[in-house]
Each structure stands twice: as C-alpha cells, then as structure tokens.
Amino acid sequence: MTQTNQPDNHFPVVIIGGGMVGASLALALQTSLAKHSNSPPMPVAIIEPYPANQLSQQPSYDARSTALSLGSQLLLEQLAVWQSLAQHATAIKHIHVSDQGRFGFTRMSADEYQLDAFGYVVANQQLGQSLFKVIQQYPAIELLSPATASQVKPLPTGYAIEVQQGEKKSWLTTDLLVIADGGRSPLITQLGINVQCTDYHQTAIIANVTTSKPNQGQAFERFTEQGPMALLPLAKNHSALIWSIYQDQAQQWLEATDSHFLESLQKHFGYRLGRFTKIGQRFYYPLSLKYSSEQIRPGLVVLGNAAHALHPVAGQGFNLALRDTLQLANLLKDSWEQHGAINDYAILRRYLALQESDQIITMLGSDWLVKAFSNQHTGLSVVRNIGLVGLDLLSEAKTIFTKQAMGVGFNQTSI
User: Fold this and answer.
1) CA distance 292 to 352
2) Which residue, 173, 261, 158, 164, is CA-closest to 209?
C-alpha cells in the first residue's frame, strides 16, 4: 500500500471509503489477481477521510463488534486477513433464540452440523487493523488519506473525482467508481440516487457487558417487549450487547445509570448467563432499512451500507456486503485478465443479477424478523412461539435456518 498526499491522475478503480467494505474490495482485487493470474496488478485508489493510523475514528471501525458468518470467515481466510484476525475472534458455538415471556425457543449447536463454529465475533477495530495490515503488502493500492471526495462528475467512460486534502484540491479520473462510504453517503445524494428507507422507529444500544457466568461461545437472540436483543460472545465472561429499543422509550435508556440499565437488562434477558455485573460505554444508533434504488450505473457501483443498510437483528449487514464485494471482485478480475473494460456495463449488470436474489432474501428476512417479533399482539406472539418450538423440533427447518445464518445459503463466492 502506498499512502500519499499527491494522487496520480488516473486509476482503473477508485473506492470512496476505506471502511470494512471498501478495504475488503481493494484487497480482493489484488488477491484474486495474485492467486490466479499472470496479469499485472490492478491499480486501486482508496479515498478515506480518516488517517490510516487512526482507525478508531473511522465509523466502520468503531466500538461495535461484528458477527462474521462462517461464509465470511472463509472469505477473509482467502484474503489472508483471517490469519492475523483469528487470535482476536470468539467462536459462536451455540445459538439460542427466544421470545420474552413465552415458552418457545430454538437452540442450535455447531457440533450438530459437524462444525467447529457457526461463525465468529470480532471487534470492528481489530478487523480494520487486520485488513490494513494485509493491504500494506500491495503497492498497487494507493491510500489517499486523510482525504475526501468533494464532488464527482460522470465522463464518457468513467468518472472524475475532486479530491480534497486539507486546503489542497486536485482531480483524478477512474474507469470504475465504487461508492462505499456508508449509509449516509453524501455522494449518493449528489448523484441523484434515490434511497428507499423504512424507519423502524428504534434505536440500537451497543455496549460490552460482563456476566457472572462464562458465555461458552453462546450467541443469544432475545425478542423482548422493548425490542430485539442480541448478545454475542466475546472472551470468557464478556459479551457484546446489541439492543434495539423503541425510539419513544430511548431517552430513558440514554439517561439511565449503569446500575439501573443492568437491572433492566437482567429483567428482559433473564439469567442464562447468570448476573450482569458490569457494562462498558454505551453507544446509540438510529435503525432503519435503507436500499439504494440504483446500485450500478455505467462506470459506477454502490456497495455496503450505501447500497443496503439492514437492521442488526440477524447480524447479516456486513456478511451480505462481503458476498457482494467478492462477487464483484471476481468479475472485475476476469475482465482485467482478458484486457477488457472493467467498467463495461454488461459486467456490472451481471454482478447485480448474481447478487440480487441474495440481497432481496437477506433484506426481506431481516425486515420480517423485526416486524414479526416487534409486534406484541397476543395472537402473533402465540404464532411466534409455535414457530420457535417447531424450528427447534424440525431438523430440516433448523438446517435451512442455520445455513442462512452461516452465510452459506447461497452459492459461495471464492477468490
């Protein structure tokens, strides 16, 4: 990786955003060519507002943790990222899903499927460090940092990007512009791309918690009267909490003391991990389902949360984005090897055709979970419980559910 304040004039690919998705794409393009091709490396520029040595400031690498599906773990292994990340990851060996106040629940264990784990939990900051550790090995990746893309203009083939670094402005051009700068992308608005949004009227509370009992690799999905709650296993007695609270009740949780918060958490979660003894700093995020009406244009691709931002209830946001990213990288690699135009609109249409069903099913599944388990109507609660009991008893249904959760329900992309 080259870090510079003076961008070259032209790159085949320019990625706006060096978060988890943008960094993964840059790395996938280099890895796929290095493994399977005698073609020269594909020069890639990443435009990133935050300095590379201050990853904790990057919103993608904040205090949150990510549940990597088994499919995502395998993809990161192919990118040589997992080798340094594995020591910081916690295996998800068991999944427990329940509905507060109801008898129904379902449970799954990895050993039932002859697996070491369903997936792994990693801190976003650690994932970012591991990605950039590998990126530094590829001189074809140029990191423009700290820098912003103040405006973009379509060209007959490709795009021109105005890059601002401090007081300096310069222009560069690209065959393929990739927008991966998150769910509040200013460039999406600038380009006139409509974003469809479903407001869940919920706020996510994110924090690390300590319990009196070790988690033993258990991940919990708990549907409470306050909103869906997930506890992801971290080391020993620590877990990552993601609790989706209704917005009209969010203020009381913002103002609650740690002791009051833990008391309420105990009431809604129960005692499967013993007592909650400590909570770290709490972070809050508004929740919605966002879907870009255009993910591709000639010479343009929208990826990650800029393309589709999901509710965290099923933990599939980054896993879906990574599947998109690897699919795109493979198609671009094939065109590069054949000396074709990587911004050929036919390639981009093929990418979207290959990923569209995955995107739709994953988004609809996440949306259904939120709406079905957020509705406290008595009749629907009974149906949910029957569903959870049935899922626990029917091995075939559990297998289908588990494959989707592991990110292997679709054709697995590989580098």
Assistant:
1) 13
2) 261
Asked if the structure places residue 317 within a domain, the reply is yes
| 239 half-sphere exposure, CB direction, 13 A CA radius | 30
Asked, for residue 105, whether it belongs to a domain, the answer is: no
Domain count, the chain: 1
Is there a contact between 14 and 343 (Cβ–Cβ < 8 Å)?
no
Is the residue at 236 inside a domain?
A: no
Give the 3-state secondary structure of residue 234.
Answer: coil
- Cβ atoms of 288 and 363 within 8 Å: the answer is no
Using N-to-C axis directions, what is the helix angle for 378-393 and 345-374, rounded to 10°? 110
Segment 79-129, tens digit of pLDDT: 999 999 999 999 999 988 887 645 456 888 989 888 899 899 999 989 999
Which residues are within 8 A (CB) of 404 and not within 5 positions of it... i.e. 6 or more apart? Answer: 362, 365
Residue 394 lies in a domain: no
CA–CA dist 90, 301 (Å, integer): 33
Domain range spanning residue 354?
2-62+125-197+290-378
Query: Model confidence at 56, in pLDDT bands (50, 70, 90)?
Result: low
Asked if 221 and 230 touch (Cβ cutoff 8 Å), the reply is: yes
CATH (domain of 337): 3.50.50.60
Q: CA 215 to CA 78: how far, in whole Å?
A: 29
